[in-house]
Protein 1
Amino acid sequence: MTNRTYREVRLAARPTGPVTDDLFEIVEVPIPEPGPGQVLVRNTHMGLGAVMRSLMDEHNDVPIPSYEVGAPLHGHAIGEVVAAPGTDLHPGDLVEHQLGWREYALLDADAATRLDPDLMPDPAAYLSQGSTALMGIERGAEVRPGDTVFVTGAAGGVGSLAGQVARQFGATRVIGSTGSQQKADRLIKELGYDAVVIRGAGPIEEQLRAAAPDGIDAVFDNVGGEQLEAALALANRNARVAVVGALASQLSQDGTTVKVAVDSLSLLIRSITLRGIALYNHRDLIPQWNRRFAAGLRDGTLTFPHARLQGIEQAPRALRELTEGRHLGAVVVEF
């Protein structure tokens, strides 16, 4: 290596509202030397997610450590091994790990997972959130042939894949929600959604009733709040509701938790299943998803909607724009 330093993004201050660029600082530091059992990785891509806004707070409700002020952030990344003394990894190996937000990562070898460089047509596809989409569709909402499915937050990194996966499981009508007419049009034209309800365009329940006149059989909920309440109101007998995310709370402007009113008697009478489900309990789906996604990308039955920003200096902007809803699909930074 000719350059003996690299850049990393640190948390400069905790937010009191929305994500702003001044909450981050980019610092140049020396490239470390790996010791026995360690691996030095040159990161090539990192993925961003809405959960990162929660991790910027000192305390959060997700099972991931909060970011520390003055320390580099962390998150899903892939890269090439530079050196890995005393391990079964070799220079040039493609690996994934959780030390993104930096151009080089030093970690214990058992924290890096070797990836097949030939599996995905685009290595950035390893950063998709499709394993969460598969989990919610297959094991959470238990989508079946003939179902009408409602996916909230349909334009995000998870939702943009959940609708596609629902089709693979036989859904005959797929309805999404999003925050703008432009995104709604793209979801219908590009991702095969049959109808889309738009946040802010009127009561969600009224829009959903028009989009699903025969009710809803399966719900993939990324959002919570009014959208989950509307889904429950329209749920058919024996409907399955998977609570996969909580964007309404994670991205609230004042940091407050958005409550959901649940009529338990109505759920009981209609035999509705309401299930919270998280990927950390279903990690066996990750390799399954990678194989399914790679095959779908190659034969054209699946697509990877995403925005790709170039350079680590764009990482703060990428997270800000993600939380502002600027992009459709996943958000990836390429180093």
Protein 2
Amino acid sequence: MNNRENEDILIGKIKYTNCWPMFHHFKPDALSQKSRLVTEVPSILNRRMLEGSLDISPVFSFAFGYGAEQFVLLPDLSVSSNGQVNSILLFSRKPPEQIRNGVIALTNTSATSVNLLKIIMEKAYGGSPTYWDSEPDLDLMMANSDAALLIGDNAISASWSNEEFIVTDLGEVWKQWTGYGMTFAVWAVQRSFAEDQPELLTEVSRAFQESKHQSLRDLSPLVEEACSEIGGTREYWRHYFNNLSYDFNEPMQKGLAMYFSYAYELGLLKHKVQMNVWNENMLTRVKE
């Protein structure tokens, strides 16, 4: 590994609620090698994975695409939607197809969602909007814009208080347009780590899988924590967690491959992306 000051296994953890099921029952202390979690916002985890100072981390899909050659993916772990995602939302005064050449304010917290919006606006709606970057403040964003993109907990909170704007769920638009689900985050591993420590990687992969399955068997602790930290009702959060997909099966892989293909076509990525999935000491190449 590069830029490492100790021998601990460093595992990134995204603060967002949509990753909670994979981490709620994940215990780094139970691993056979000393490990610790690095909890940060996605942009910092993405950067640290790209610079090589984390071993394993969920990363936003676009960040994986940017550095795909240095990563492999853990199997059956993602934050995806097979339709509505409820946390990648475009707020606008008119339907998005009517503002395809308008001005859109972009959250500065997610390249994956920003580029998903650009793909939809330019490929699905045939537009060419003007974009500008903003802090995730809906009033500020909409002051001089036709639409504003918010993601994650900011999008959820804004949707609860919104009475003025049309709200478009980008996961739903992607599904209607392509027929595939959309994967927003994947679990990336440094290729060098996978090659050097395959047994430990298998152990980590199984621990994440068990946390996911245990969380989904009983969502009550996650629901209560979300209500306490963010607000909202138990019914909302139970639906939110149940509505997301945390797998990375073949249809989800094909949907993500399509996203990367459009990103390359539009010049958002400078290279074609090849996904390699780790599976019990083996690599499986995702076919487009």
Protein 3
Amino acid sequence: MPESVKLVSMGTAVPPHVIDQRDAALASHQAFSSRYADFERLAKVFESSGIRRRYGVRPLDWYFKTPGWPDRNDAFIEGAGALFVSAANNALQAAGLSAVDVDTIVTVTSTGIATPSLEARVSTQMGFRTDVDRIPVFGLGCAGGVSGFSIASRLAASRPGSVVLLVAVETCTLAFRIDKLTKANIVATALFGDGAAACVLRATDDGIAEVEMSGQHTWPDTLDIMGWSVDPEGLGVIFDRAIPPFAAANIQPAVTSILGRSGMTVEDIDRFACHPGGAKVIDALETALALGQGSLNHERDVLSDYGNMSSPTALFVLDRLISSGLPRRTLLTAMGPGFTLSCVSLKAAA
């Protein structure tokens, strides 16, 4: 029998600039309060978000100098490249491997444009082989880390023994826009942070956990829930529908459907590892999945320490679960643009 795909190791990284939530609230007040009549009411999100600090690829004052699209994308290429290298090296070192051992790279991002893509730009610095397979994936947003994990695991299964490196890297803070006087933009200014997470996957007999199954569910007519708008100044966040009530009403049937395709039920899951999009989203997930209040403790801790980093955030949660001891079966989940739920089931190694 061929070996099943295992998660062999993980690594994470954040950029050097700390964004304290109190400083972000003060800067946003100075930028928006005199120009946006409803700012004081919306500004409560800085306190209710559950976030203490975040990290950015640029210092806080840079975001409030109205940089245009070229400057923002240059910051993405530089900052995301550095995060890629740091997270990838951390994961490879934890696996006892080096970049020359990597056969396939899956790079997930949605917060900037790079052609050639990020893994090509850092290839020489990393030391990847010239015959490495490159799989850049764009546009999955907050679901990208989990969906990328699924893609990487299937690639590992297709070539047993090969080393597949997944890197999810985002610079969400580059979407801070003082020129956009919208509720969505102010909420984004209170939530978003930057970071990267990397995983090594391989069809082998050793690893942290076995990848059991994966699946997605996309709801029809939901393109307006989350995404980017594009204009000469850069990317602008779209939150046209409230995500917490949508999650509360819709995630449980979708999870049940995804699990059912593999002959599993919600009762088979010992721990849900969820993307913490915000404090209200975490509350909604606990309600929808019939979890005890406070069950998603690692999610709240990651949100508090890093904010919403989009695609890597669920992998940061998984990393904390691994550190505290994985239960028998974990379901990694995240929702993102589409509007889509992505799931991966992991069975802890004996």
